Amino acid sequence: MRKWIAIFILLIISVLVYKYIYQEHRNISNEVSVYKTASKDIINEFKDNSTNAENKYLNKTIEISGNITQHSNKTITINETIFCQFTEEITVTENNFKITIKGRFIGYDDLLEEIKLDQCTIIN
User: Fold this and answer.
1) Domain residues for 66?
2) Which terminus of the chain, N or C, has fewer Cβ atoms within 10 Å?
């Protein structure tokens, strides 16, 4: 009887570990944003205390509004500080265009002083 209980417990633990390791990927475009902010406000937060700001936003879905300063087919830079990476190609034709982007905050680069987002989508 003990043998069957041990096998049953081992089986449950194995299933839980498998589900944890192979969980579904997040779809950031379908998630509700935890924070909505203007680019200047979040930039000031990181200038004031980058450690606290990074802990606040890390791995969270956020919306940021600001002006495009650089762009390519899969990236946009907002206000020269917020680097947004897209999973698909985007069509942005001009700089200095006001935009709102939703993405997952993945970190702050102290050396380049860049706020980094991935899995971004354009809200408007």
Assistant:
1) 28-122
2) N
* CA 103/CA 90 separation, integer angstroms: 14
Number of domains in the chain: 1
Tokens, residue 40: 């200047």
How far CA 71 is from CA of 53, 75, 82, 109, 124, in Å, comes to 25, 6, 11, 19, 16
> What is this structure's pTM?
0.77
CB 103 within 8 A of CB 62: yes
13 domain-assigned: no
Q: Looking at the domain assignment, is residue 55 inside a domain?
A: yes
pLDDT, tens digit (0-9, with 9 covering 90-100), for 81-121: 999 999 888 887 677 889 999 999 999 988 888 999 999 99
115 three-state secondary structure:
strand
Query: Which residue's entry shows tokens 């406000």?
Result: 41
Any idea what the CATH number is for the domain that residue 79 is in? 2.40.50.140
Tokens found for residue 119 = 């899995």
How far from 19 is each of 5, 9, 10, CA to CA, in Å? 21, 16, 14
Structural contact between residues 66 and 85, judged by C-beta atoms closer than 8 angstroms: no
